[in-house]
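G., the chain you wanted modeled:
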Amino acid sequence: MICARCGIAHLSEIPHFCVNKHLPKTRYQEIQEACSAFHEANPEVWDLFVRFTLQRIQQGYEHYSVAAIFERVRWETDKGADSPALKLNNNFRAFYARRFAAWYPVQKDFFRTRVQKSAHRRGTGRPEPTREELQ
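Predicted structure as tokens:
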């Protein structure tokens, strides 16, 4: 029988849990995919994130808050607008901090990170809310 999910021939016609392509996503995977899509659509956020982080490093900080950097990015992208141009999802902060550590290995400990518990949680199966849904 050809599996309708993965297109691979399996020996049994008994419904099965096909592991070839569709293990249930973890919440981590869902957030990571949403963050990657956001990053692709809004590269200016990464540029601001790096700029503000490097400013703090140049000011002598050894560690800093990724939340504070995100709020600064929000401020810079929102100022003067009746409605913000971007909606920065707080779930993306950890991904930006880890991306910074990967791109700037000398500063890999600038943001303190924790184990991402979402890696062990089942995904919701729902897309991230849109801007309109959040208003």
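The longest helix spans residues 43-58.

Shout if anything looks off.
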